[in-house]
Amino acid sequence: MNRPPLPRGTAYAVLAALAAVVILVSTAIFAGVGGRAGQTATGPRDTPATTAAASGAWIGSWATSPSSAEPNTLRGFPGQSIRNVVHTSIGGTGARIQLSNLYGTQPLAVTHASLALAARPGSPAAAPDSMRRLTFAGQPTTTIPAGQSQLSDPVQLVVPAARDLLVTTFSPTPSGPVTHHPHARQTSYLAQGDRTEDTAGAGYTTKSKYWRYLTAVDVWTHEADGAVVALGDSITDGVTATPDANRRWTDFLAARLRTEPGAPRYGVLNEGISGNRVLLGNTGPAPVNNPSALERLDRDVLSRAGARVVVVELGINDILRRPQQSDPQQIVAGLRKLVERAHARGLRVVGSTLTPFGGHRGGQPPQEAVRQGVNELVRSGKVFDSVVDFDLALRDPAAPLRLLPQYDSGDHLHPSDAGYAAMARALNLDTLKGQAQTAL
User: Fold this and answer.
1) What is the pTM of this model?
2) Fewer CB atoms < 10 Å away: N or C end of the chain?
3) How far is the CA of 195 from the CAs of 114, 368, 423, in angstroms?
4) Sheet containing 132-133: which strands, arranged edge to edge?
5) Which of 349, 399, 348, 391 shows the shortest CA–CA distance to 373?
C-alpha cells in the first residue's frame, strides 16, 4: 500500500534521529572494544590481540610496574597536580590509561585527570589542541579503593609512536601512601592546585624522578598486532640509562620493532623492578613492596592489553640478594613456573641468560657458580620457548666473567646506554613471533 510522503520537517527529524543513533553506536563501539573501560581492574582485561592490524584493538603502548609505596607520603599529595611524563612505543587514534592505588591504605579520590601530547620531549607543556579530559565509567571523577586499580574511558586522540605523553591527576584530599615506580629515568612534574588541564605547564615548577599512580597507557591501533612485555629486574628497569633519553634496552627494542623490515609490529611494555627476584619478594603484610615475579605475573604481564610474548630477564637478584639462592635448579624451577602460567594464557616466552657481574660487590666465586649453572640450564632449550643470550652479548671476550668495559655503567653489574643497545640487538626478532609451546 502506498503511503503519503512525510512532511518535510518530520523527515528531517527522522534523519537527525537516525544520525544520532549512528553516532551513539559508533561511540559505544570505540569505547567498548577494549573491554570494561572505566572499571576497577582486578583481573585480566583483554585477551591477546590476533587481528589488530585488520580490525583495530587496544594494545599497550607504555606500562610500568607499581613497585612500592612511596616513602614519606602518608597523606599522599592532596591539593597538588601530578603530571607524569611517559614515552609511547606504538601509536594509535585513541588512548586510555590505568591508575593504581595498589599500595594505598585508603581510597584515592581523583577529581580531575587529563591526557595530552607533550609540546616537546620532557616538557610539562602540552602540544596545541591535544589536551583531553579523562573520565571513568562516564564520570569526570573516580575513587579507587585501596589495593585496586582503575581503567579510564577512552579518548579520541592521534597518539604518535615514540612520543612523550602527559598524564595528569589531581586529588583534593589525603589518600595515604602513594603507589609509585621509583626508577623512572624520566622527569615528571608537580604543581600546586588543580592544574590538570594547564596546557602551558608554567605551574609545574617541581620536578620528580618518579611515576606516581599511572601504570599503563593503551592505544587503539590498526597498525600493531600485540605487545611484548619485558619482565625483569633493574637491568630491564634501566636504572643506569641516561635520564630523559629513552635508552633502556626496551626502548632500543621498540625502535627496532618500529623500523626493521619484517619485524613484528608490537608495543613494548617495560615491567622491570629494581631488585626484583624470581622466587622471593619482600616480607610483611600484603601488598608487599617489590613482590616476586611469580607474585606479580598476573598483574604486570598477563593482564596487559594485547600481550603476545614475554621476555624474561630475571635471576641475578636471587643470587646476589640475601637470602641468597645457592641452587640454580631452584631458580630455574621458578622460571619454569612463569613459563607454564604464561603458556596457559597463550603467551610465548623468551628467556635470557644472566649477565656478567664480575667485579661487582657480592659477585664472588660461589655466586658466579650459580649464575653459570642457571645459564647452562637456560641454554639447554628446556626452560623457555626461545633464548636471548644477554650474557654473550655483554661479556668481555678477554674476561668473560665481566661486562665489556664500554658496556659497563661503572658498577660492574648494570649496562651503560651502549650495553642496553647491545641487549636489544641481541634479541632475534623472529623469536617474538609464533605461538607458545605447550611443552618444554
Assistant:
1) 0.89
2) N
3) 10, 51, 40
4) 132-133, 112-117, 164-171, 80-87, 188-192, 206-208
5) 391
